[in-house]
Design a protein that fits this description.
heterodimer, A: 111 residues, mainly beta, six-stranded mixed β-sheet, five-stranded antiparallel β-sheet, 11 strands, B: 115 residues, seven-stranded mixed β-sheet, four-stranded antiparallel β-sheet, 0% helix
Chain lengths: 111, 115
């Protein structure tokens, strides 16, 4: 099976930078996803990493180290609307696009 | 449609009642997934279809849970004799088959409360 760990809650200040970490243990790794989920809404796709390194997309970046089983999501220039849960999910070989999720990190952005 | 559509959006069921939750995936998406999400937790996998074939149902918590996708498009998740621990959000997701990153889209979920 897969084991995915991420912090339960984080707090940061508007305009700042925050890094949300995710560690995983899995066999047959085939990609790591980050989703954003506002309360009562659907998870929405943020980023996808399958090779080591940094993927940058506007204010959001995601990093992957396969050898360490480690990823992080970096959010820059935080805005109040970034207050949400951030879900780390792993896809494995031979499971189609089935994702295994961590418990999510609830981020609160304060003025 | 433009996205994954789920109904009902909210459902209150009395304990012991049967419920049926519907998912209408994005047109042309071969793969369809059901997840269960308890309050404050991440989604947990229930079952997976490729077209009409149910390829994995290892996440269904008991034999009270049943899913079908008879024509390879719309899917229904049925829960028989609901119990309070079934209270959760049931999320449906769809994608094309294969490994393209990011092409997995979620519906807004059906919120089930068992009283």
């Amino acid at each position: 099976g897969q084991n995915i760990d991420q912090p339960t809650e984080m707090t940061a200040t508007e305009g700042a930078i925050v890094q949300i970490n995710c560690t995983y243990q899995t066999s047959g790794f085939n990609g790591l996803f980050w989703y954003q989920q506002h309360a009562g809404e659907a998870p929405t796709f943020l980023s996808y990493n399958v090779l080591d390194g940094l993927e940058e997309k506007g204010r959001f970046s995601s990093f992957l180290s396969r050898s360490k089983g480690y990823s992080y999501l970096l959010l820059k220039e935080l805005q109040m609307k970034d207050s949400a849960s951030y879900l780390c999910a792993v896809r494995v070989d031979n499971a189609g696009n089935m994702l295994t999720f961590g418990g999510g990190t609830r981020l609160m952005v304060k003025p | 449609g433009a996205g994954v559509s789920q109904s009902p959006r909210y459902k209150v069921a009395k304990r012991g009642q049967d419920v049926a939750l519907r998912c209408d995936p994005i047109s042309g998406h071969v793969s369809l997934f059901w997840y269960q999400q308890a309050l404050g937790q991440g989604p947990e996998f229930l079952t997976y279809f490729q077209n009409e074939a149910q390829l994995d149902k290892s996440g269904l918590p008991s034999d009270r849970f049943f899913a079908e996708r008879p024509e390879g498009s719309v899917s229904t998740l049925k829960i028989q004799r609901t119990q309070q621990e079934d209270s959760a959000v049931y999320l449906c997701a769809s994608s094309f088959a294969g490994g393209a990153g990011g092409g997995i889209y979620f519906g807004e979920g059906s919120w089930l409360t068992v009283v």
